[in-house]
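SEQUENCE AND FOLD
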Amino acid sequence: MRFRATAATLTTALALSALAVPAVHAADRPDVPDVPQSAPFAAKAPAKSGAKVKITKVVVNGGKDIVVGTVKKKKVTIAVTATHPSGIQEGYAMLWHGKKFSETGIDSGMVPAADRGKCTKVNKTTSTCKVTVVADPNENIYRNALAGKWKVWAGAAAKNGASVIKDTYKTVSVKRYAKLTVNAAPEPVKKGRTITVTGALTRANWDSGKYAGYTKQPVKLEFKKKGSSTYKALKTVRTDGKGKLRTTVKASVDGTFRYVFAGTSTTPSVKSTGDFVDVK
């Protein structure tokens, strides 16, 4: 079994804050992060005014899906924009997966190494605070069931002590990296003869740490004539039980073939490189 240090990572991150409160420990579930009973800034002095801190925007990974393979770690920036009349002093964020933000509800988390985000003023009342978390296939992205929607735990604290936290501010998609290949043969080929176009669609298997075929998926075969800059769809081909693709077309003119996969909720879209065929 691959090592998973999610619980220890989250515990450490929260403990770094001098304002942290005791966490609920998941001692019997080492693959699950400890869950704070309240925000790490909950112990701040009472606010001096009735104004509330408002989180106006949270952007994860620049608005793009988080795509993870089997080996490389993926750094992800979470930007929390908040506002309060006294100004924003601190920002916090992490990503978590599960049914509920609780000891038994979370099954994995991505936690920043620093307990507070680096804040940049937008104006006197508003700041954007950024934290970096890491999606690691050997630590917190360790099984296929973790692909899909992850939730954002976000919070901010004002200079006068007011604070806000949301266990689920928004969601972000975490997907299994995909690869797609193509090969058109024979080449060259005589006009009117049959061209066989093969390929394979594979994606990261976090259970095994390897790549495996993505089966029974619709993939478009596209063709671009020589001298053109535009691909046109020819047909849709489904992957077989091993993720392989195979179809035939008639040779007509010189051009380039490629396969295109639209993606799913757990796997990103991907295009193969083009394979040029010379038609005699």
Observations:
- The first helix runs from residue 6 to 15.
